[in-house]
Design brief:
- This protein is an all-alpha fold and 97 residues long.
- The chain has 3 helices and no strands.
- The N and C termini lie far apart (57 Å).
- The model has no long low-confidence stretch (mean pLDDT 87).
């Protein structure tokens, strides 16, 4: 089933990303800060009587925003790797000379 495949890939991939992006010593504090807006969104959704169409619109809006942020994060990671690659090769060239 496609859904099970996506869910099965989600948790390991999120663990890898979190391990690379969030410093170990600040991990618990950062995760707790992220729970505040998540709980606020859930609270607003539960306290308001949204129709199915409104709920779908809000979900699509949040997912689109998350996708945009994920694209920005991916670009930033590629830029950092490129900078590290360039710095490594600059050192290697200097050592060869």
């Amino acid at each position: 089933n496609g859904f099970e495949l996506c869910v099965g890939m989600y948790y390991p991939l999120m663990g890898i990303l979190k391990g690379r992006l969030v410093p170990e010593r600040h991990r618990a504090a950062i995760y707790n800060l992220f729970r505040i807006p998540l709980n606020a969104i859930v609270l607003v959704a539960l306290l308001n009587d949204f129709s199915v169409a409104q709920s779908f619109r809000y979900s699509a809006m949040f997912l689109t925003g998350a996708m945009g942020l994920q694209i920005l994060l991916a670009r930033r990671m590629v830029e950092e790797r490129t900078d590290q690659y360039d710095a490594y090769h600059a050192v290697m060239v200097d050592e060869e000379e």
